[in-house]
UniProtKB/TrEMBL annotation:
The keyword Hydrolase applies. InterPro entries: Metalloenz_LuxS/M16, MPP/UQCRC_Complex, Pept_M16_N, Peptidase_M16_C. Belongs to the peptidase M16 family. PANTHER family: METALLOPROTEASE, MITOCHONDRIAL-PROCESSING PEPTIDASE SUBUNIT ALPHA. One of its GO terms (molecular function) is metal ion binding. The keyword Phosphoprotein does not apply. GO terms for biological process: proteolysis. Residues 61-203 form the Peptidase M16 N-terminal domain. Residues 218-388, 662-840 form the Peptidase M16 C-terminal domain. It holds the Pfam family Peptidase_M16. This is Zinc protease. Its EC number is 3.4.24.-. Residues 1-27 form the signal peptide. It comes from Rhizomicrobium palustre.
Length: 910
């Protein structure tokens, strides 16, 4: 449940380290005028266009942002406390309390809270950071009252008795083990230790097993009593709500919670950095990742806006760092700032394949940064960065959940009035400001270097024991739980949600399918495209890896504009663009036609320069070869090899040898086969009319022609797999990552899909309230998380359960999972449990439309699977009708518990 500020840093590091990836199997899954909101009476409130602010008498700050994208509201309760305020020697106290907040409060038991969370659609989470702990719900608008009541009860008190903590401690310790098994996390933690020694920032908010062993329920309750107060919180709501009426509801629920006298905050004194040398972290990744990190000022600094612009400039694809990729010296390169209140971590990162001289590459990075210190940055890149920030601010309105997130960060972390205030600061930044902060803070003499060092893996090892000795358990069938009176109507409401989406569909003469969805929550337009393709069936024999190499070559511009010139054209309109079999551009409505022109230019006439091919191919080939020996890839490979026969196209794999022999003619031949208008769907969504969208798409994509018959992209039928247990050794992990799966002859259009999916939600949906979570996490503390999914494509699918646990618990957890699958076949789901799961699934439908990106990708996915675009509404009707007997029959027909393939990555399971 933890999503700390380290997430962005880890994401960046993992993207670098996993520059080459592969997919294991087939299934992939009106302009409305803005209205000012009237200020509420009683407490002082301020009003802006679509934003209502208020401060209750007890000190609770409230911000309500109206956004009518979908009938959804995102709530964010921001407590201004985190790991900074934890007791000496107990760095994970705030994180532990965050977990316990889902174990219940006076007036709301853990079971009631779990059931309500799932009934509202299961979209809830929390995260603990250094100076902030957040509790997040995204719910249908009609369930907002329930979400607010939950948060009001949790603000008042928490049930943190010792027995409940001892159960939750097992789960949180599994979360620690999960992160300690991630090389990117270990690198990030080491950077913090080097840069922030002797301060609370030395460790992130996660905590450690030793500190959790010493923690007690009474300590956690005391932490809540000390810091969880309305005058130490900011409540942010965004979505389709009535701000004035919602504020009155908030006053009723939160207004009588007493304020508290808050303790003093800790003060930080940073020591000089011990620079020099390089530390290494053993990694199970394919490539090397090298990081040069420095301590920058924090969010409180007047220089932070200029530092944001500096980071944007250094990460520009027109800046010299990316030239290292273009020259074939690195697989990827970037510059990032991970901000904290008092100080920040700034780091340049490069990823490169085995065989590359990492010391020479680091010297190149240092020389580039040193040149910035001496000569400054290009003025046009500063202006481009500021324009991109402006466009990004407008795009924030395109997601209700993201809108609540960015507002919460702006007010609770940045200490600003709104995200727009950050933009105003950035717009005032000058080239001189950027050059000044570069000279002042890009201090390479006070930097720390870290290296993720790939270690590879031993071969996958088959076991003769499928699951080990069986033990009898009480299965986690969700028991009937009496809900509070104010929540009972929610579980009884199984209505099919209505959608406001009305896509306009047309097909161009060349076969290209166009879907246009007008949405006017922002002045932006997104163009999203997908070409139905499959490298496993379309690549010529011996040409494995051709799609990966072709994708990398798209970075080098078009026939009309070289790489730098093309990026400059995109910067001129502040657009974000990507070309390939999945392509997109996002920009302001005023620049729509120019954006479509550039996207079509890139997609239909990529430059594919041979000089660039020769530069990047050797390192990419080495990276692919290295990937093939990593534990993650070997586990994925074992998964596919044991689900499908040896002759199945899904078992094709690229090697270093296959990539290095690819020629420009091979890439062009593959491009000609795959890139066809009659295999392409484009979605245009945003502040646009269908007529304007069609005119631009037809103008710039209408001349695209297909040659010859359509290619075969579907995978063949596969016989049922046989059971197997495989272990992939991974010395970098302290915890095992486990997949349990079986293949299915079921495709996405099969009528049984819906009964199976509803049964799958009984097993793995709704967090605490699902059967697997009840057994494995809530009651036993064997795992931090467990999930199950039904993946069905155009011709076939598979069913998979995934979890992570300590080695001694792998077989125990596997046995529990197997028993749960058998139970679904042996007896029907009780009606109360089925109704709760139906309520959750029906509410997930509007939640899946709470962002422009999700709507667009939903259209593309349904088009790719030949499903109706309104399939979610049709599915809702089907889910509402399904009986327990149908679910039992579907599991008996399709699920084969005795044929499960179990693949473990990590230490030898016990």
């Amino acid at each position: 449940m933890l999503q700390t500020t380290r997430a962005a840093a880890l994401a960046a590091l993992l993207v670098l380290a996993f520059a080459v990836t592969t997919s294991p199997a087939e299934a992939r899954h009106r302009h409305h005028p803005h209205h000012a909101v009237a200020a509420a009476k009683a407490d002082p409130a301020s009003v802006e266009s679509n934003v209502l602010r208020a401060k209750l008498k007890n000190g609770l700050r409230v911000i309500l942002i109206k956004n009518t994208l979908s009938p959804v509201v995102a709530t964010s309760v921001n407590y201004l406390v985190g790991s900074d305020e934890t007791p000496e020697g107990f760095p994970g106290t705030a994180h532990a309390l965050e977990h316990m907040m889902f174990r219940g409060s006076p007036g709301l038991s853990a079971d009631q809270l779990a059931n309500l969370g799932s009934i509202m659609g299961g979209e809830f989470n929390a995260n603990t950071r250094e100076a902030l702990t957040q509790y997040l719900y995204t719910v249908p608008s009609e369930d907002l009252d329930i979400a607010l009541r939950i948060e009001a009860l949790r603000m008042r008190d928490v049930d943190a008795d010792q027995a409940a903590w001892e159960k939750e401690r097992g789960a949180i310790e599994q979360e620690v083990a999960q992160d300690m098994s991630a090389p990117g996390y270990k690198l990030y933690e080491r950077l913090r230790k080097e840069l922030f020694a002797g301060t609370p920032y030395e460790h992130d908010a996660l905590g450690s097993r030793p500190s959790f062993e010493k923690t007690t329920g009474a300590m956690l309750k005391d932490f809540h009593r000390t810091w969880y107060a309305p005058n130490n919180a900011i409540l942010v709501l965004a979505g389709n709500l009535d701000p004035a009426a919602t504020l009155e509801k908030i006053k009723t629920l939160f207004g009588d919670i007493p304020a508290k006298k808050l303790p003093a905050r800790p003060k930080m004194t940073f020591k000089p950095i011990k620079a020099g040398g390089i530390f290494t972290i053993d990694s199970d990744m394919a490539n090397f990742t090298r990081v040069i990190a420095m301590r920058f000022p924090g969010l409180k600094s007047k220089d932070f806006a200029a530092l944001e612009v500096l980071a944007d400039v250094l990460s520009s694809r027109r800046f010299a760092l990316f030239d290292l990729v273009a020259q074939g010296k690195a697989l990827s390169a970037s510059f990032s700032i991970q901000p904290l209140k008092e100080a920040s971590i700034a780091y340049a990162s490069v990823s490169y394949a085995p065989g590359v001289d990492g010391n020479a590459l680091e010297a190149d990075v240092r020389a580039i940064l040193q040149k910035v210190v001496k000569e400054g940055v290009p003025a046009d890149l500063v202006e481009a960065a500021k324009l991109q920030e402006k466009r990004a601010t407008e795009r924030q309105k395109n997601s209700i959940t993201d809108l609540a997130d960015v507002w919460s960060d702006a007010v609770a972390l940045y200490g600003l009035k709104s995200p727009d205030e950050d933009l105003k600061r950035i717009e005032k930044v000058t080239v001189e400001d950027v050059n000044r902060v570069a000279r002042q803070y890009l201090n390479l003499d006070q930097s720390v270097s870290g290296l993720l060092l790939p270690k590879g893996s031993g071969k996958a090892v088959a076991s003769t024991s499928a699951t080990g000795g069986m033990e009898t358990i009480n299965l986690g069938e969700a028991k009937s739980t009496e809900l509070p009176a104010w929540a009972k109507t929610a579980v009884n409401r199984l209505s099919v949600p209505e959608t406001a989406l009305k896509p306009v569909v047309s097909v161009l003469p060349n076969g290209l399918k166009l879907i246009v969805q007008p949405v006017a929550v922002s002045d932006t337009v997104g163009v999203f495209g997908h070409i139905r393709n499959r490298q496993e069936t379309q690549a010529a024999p011996g040409k494995d890896g051709v799609a990966t190499l072709l994708g990398a070559l798209f970075n080098f511009g078009t026939e009309k504009h070289d790489r730098l010139a093309f990026e400059k054209e995109l910067d001129a309109i502040g657009a974000q663009e990507h070309a390939g079999t999945d392509f997109q551009i996002q920009l302001l409505s005023q620049d729509f036609e120019r954006g479509v022109e550039l996207l079509a230019e890139h997609e239909l006439s990529p430059a594919l320069p041979e000089m660039a091919l020769n530069a990047i191919k050797p390192q990419l080939a080495q990276s692919v070869e290295s990937r093939n020996h990593t534990p993650g890839y070997l586990a994925q490979r074992a998964f596919v090899e044991h689900l499908y026969p040896a002759t199945d196209p899904a078992l094709r794999q690229a090697t270093g040898a296959s990539v290095i022999t690819l020629t420009l003619d091979d890439l062009k031949a593959y491009y000609k086969t795959v890139y066809r208008p009659d295999m392409t769907t484009i979605v245009v969504i945003g502040n646009i009319t269908p007529e304007r969208a069609r005119a631009a798409i037809e103008k710039y994509f209408g001349g695209w022609k297909a040659e010859g018959p359509k290619p075969v992209v579907d995978l063949p039928d596969a016989p049922p797999n046989k059971p197997a247990t495989i272990t992939v050794p991974d010395s970098a992990r302290v915890q095992d990552q486990v997949l349990m799966a079986l293949n299915l002859a079921l495709n996405r259009s099969n009528p049984d899909y819906y009964a199976l999916e509803l049964g799958n939600q009984v097993l793995g949906g709704g967090f605490y309230s699902s059967r697997l979570s009840i057994d494995l996490r809530k009651n036993a503390g064997l795992v931090y998380s467990v999930g199950s999914s039904l993946a069905a494509g155009r011709t076939r699918g598979y069913y998979v359960v995934q979890y992570a646990s300590d080695p001694e618990n792998v077989s125990k957890a596997a046995n529990i999972i197997t028993q749960n699958l058998k139970a679904m076949q042996e007896k029907p789901v009780p009606q109360e449990e089925l109704d709760r799961v139906k309520a959750m699934v029906l509410r997930q439908i509007p939640l899946s439309e709470d962002s422009v990106d999700e709507i667009a990708h939903g259209f593309l996915e349904r088009s790719d699977l030949d499903l109706p675009l309104d399939e979610p509404s049709l599915a809702a009707k089907r889910y509402a009708e399904i009986t327990a007997a149908e679910i039992q029959a579907a599991f008996a027909k399709w699920i084969r518990p005795g044929d499960l393939v179990r693949v473990s990555q990590g230490p030898e399971p016990k």
